[in-house]
Design a protein that fits this description.
CATH class: Alpha Beta
Low-confidence stretches: 258-269
Largest sheet: 6 strands, mixed
Shape: globular
Number of strands: 12
Structural class: alpha/beta
Mean pLDDT: 88
Number of helices: 8
Helix content: 25-40%
Number of domains: 1
CATH architecture: 3-Layer(aba) Sandwich
């Protein structure tokens, strides 16, 4: 089997939000391979969203380097970054009363220049409005939609950007179960077409089913990598990251609410 190309690489990255603040990321190194689905997992406050922003070219690290196909990512023009990396933040919002169609059309902005927009693909706006059940809302201000509907709008914008790499922070949050499944199937199909996916997921049961590799992050440090098919290594990294509250079984991950009678303070005598 031929070795997959490294598209995105972080080397010894340190990041903090202000000069005197604590380091949110500490000595983080990773490689993202072409065509893989990498899932970043870890406890709240682990630095997952910050890491995704660093990889997306939005938050330059104070130390270390991020490389896109052997080039310094942060030395590339913003338009070139946006033609290659599409990023969906965890809680996107719109400050003004833009309509659904207008917001999804923002996906084409990276393809405009002073010479026009010869590479823009407006048909993709219509494609993803349809695929994500947004056609009835195309003229509706995004601010008037529910949280789940808004999430689908921003997903449509990201997908219509048509980049080789998609970076998604909790892409299925706020969605009902049917739309969660639909979005995961769309993302899987895009991966099959050759797209590279980097996602943050809190639901480990979903993460181990969709990810080719899982990156475990805790307190800003990489705890390890695992192919989720390797149950022994998976269990070891889960314990290293979360302690004994989770275990891996043949049916999937199990939440250990009570580990012993002593911990079960509410049990009847």
């Amino acid at each position: 089997m031929s070795k997959k190309e490294v598209l995105l690489k972080a080397e010894h990255v340190f990041f903090r939000y202000n000069q005197k603040g604590k380091w949110v990321l500490q000595n983080v190194s990773l490689s993202v391979l072409r065509g893989e689905w990498l899932v970043i997992v870890g406890p709240n406050g682990a630095g997952k969203s910050t890491l995704l922003r660093v990889l997306a070219g939005i938050a330059p690290p104070q130390h270390g380097q991020v490389r896109w196909q052997h080039q310094d990512l942060y030395r590339l023009p913003a338009r070139i970054r946006a033609q290659n990396l599409a990023y969906l933040e965890q809680k996107p919002s719109v400050a003004f009363p833009y309509t659904v169609e207008q917001v999804v059309a923002w996906s084409q902005l990276p393809y405009y220049s002073i010479w026009g927009a010869p590479h823009r693909q407006p048909h993709l706006v219509q494609k993803w409005l349809k695929h994500l059940d947004l056609e009835p809302y195309r003229s509706t201000p995004v601010s008037q939609l529910s949280g789940g509907e808004q999430q689908r709008v921003f997903l449509a914008m990201l997908l219509a950007q048509n980049t080789p790499v998609l970076l998604l922070d909790e892409p299925i949050q706020h969605l009902d179960p049917c739309h969660q499944i639909r979005i995961l199937r769309i993302l899987h199909a895009l991966k099959q077409e050759g797209k590279t996916l980097i996602t943050i997921l809190h639901d480990l049961n979903i993460a181990v089913r969709v990810g080719d590799r899982l990156l475990f992050l805790k307190e800003g440090r990489v705890q390890g990598w695992v192919n989720p098919a390797n149950k022994t290594h998976l269990q070891a990294l889960i314990k290293k990251t979360w302690g004994d509250c989770l275990k891996v079984s043949p049916e999937g991950l199990t939440l250990q609410i009570f580990t012993s009678e002593k911990n079960h303070a509410g049990s009847p005598e």
